[in-house]
Design brief:
Elements: H1 3-10, E1 13-14, E2 25-27, H2 40-45, E3 50-53, E4 63-65, H3 69-84, E5 88-92, H4 97-108, E6 114-116, H5 126-132, E7 140-144, H6 152-160, E8 164-167, H7 175-178, H8 181-188, H9 190-196, E9 202-206, H10 210-215, E10 221-225, E11 231-232, E12 234-235, E13 241-248, E14 251-260, H11 265-277, H12 282-291, E15 300-303, E16 308-312, H13 318-331, E17 336-340, H14 349-362, E18 369-372, H15 374-377, E19 384-386, H16 389-399, E20 406-410
Parallel strand pairs: 1-2, 2-3, 3-4, 5-7, 5-8, 6-7, 8-9, 9-10, 10-11, 16-20, 17-18, 17-20, 18-19
Antiparallel strand pairs: 12-13, 13-14, 15-16
Length: 424
Amino acid sequence: MQVFEAFLSCGSVCTDTRSIQPGSVFFALKGASFNGNTFALQALEAGAAFAVVDEHVGNDERLIKVSDVLAALQQCALDYRRHLNLPTIGLTGSNGKTTTKELFHAVLKTKYKVHATKGNFNNHIGVPLTILSAPKETEILIVEMGANHQKEIGLLASIAEPSLGYITNYGKAHLEGFGGVEGIIKGKSELYDYIAQTPKGLALVNADDAIQLEKSAACRRTTFGKTNAQFTYAIEEHDEFAGIQFSIATTSYTVKSNLSGSFNCTNLAAAVALGRYFDVPAPAIVQALIDYVPAMNRVEWRKTASNRVLLDAYNANPTSMSLSIENFAKWHKDGWMVLGDMFELGEASAVEHQAIVELVQRTNMEERCILVGKHFGLAAWQGLQFETTGDLESYWKENGAPKDAAILLKGSRGIALEQLLPLL
């Protein structure tokens, strides 16, 4: 039996024998420290209908032998994407991918049956799994695409075949893998390159970003922005939460969101522009954006026993870190900032961490900021600094943590600043 034929007969896939779905297709993927082929028979015993392998593991007729399991998974996803034959939104960018994906989902699901990337399943394995988990009745597919080096977005686009592409921004993320800012722009723009070559493909473009306009010039596109765009909006800034105002025909609408930071206004505007393109009624768009509450440790306000914590500890890079600091310092001068190391910056690490220290100093919050991580430990800093989150935990247990305060926790995933929540 062929892999795609097996998938169509089953309707689900799995890659982990610890969570086998009865009747699914098991893909025996390999990693640096594991070989899924060794678990293939176990997967069948646990209820999988078929197991896709690239090594000889037995003669069970339910084993499907291929030359490369990962390639077979990706091809199966492509085959299913073409089988579904539905509008597919591909989105990438240095910052805000997951938040924007969630906003797109919130808006479109008011009118359509939408399937979107869960969490951040956005790499060469996550994208195929996202596609293959789409129910047959799906009407619109939203696929988030992450990358830390060039040519990766091109690969993911070739698997998902997006009919509409959106790039949130070009920021200083994964500098090491991309080889600098120019490498980031080139790598992320592979989505525009794909859309430009796609019949009837469309790019949703932020017209306020000159580089985005340049890189999408070969695409058929629809634009949004504060001026000179097909869809225009204005920023509503009354407090720390992002808000926008826009008009359709003679009716004016205002969105007051639960997203902290005016930098999220672009994400809101993109969601409105997308909703309008797919003919979602404006009142439904507005209500969906008002109701959306961030989660997954991304720009997420949490009320603890003693404080209000802005948890943004899933990821960090110089661009997102700077925006978070500026926004928090603007609205919470009497609050506390706990900032963790930013990873994957390569040779730029020392310069970028020092730049963050200097930004904190310019906001006059140096006495109310704590740095965590070895990279920040190399910066010129006179305030509190700890090598690990555990070290800060020990310090707070002995000396007491802040109380009755707004507290920003911002750092890369590996620093695990969310571990501090029980003490706050």
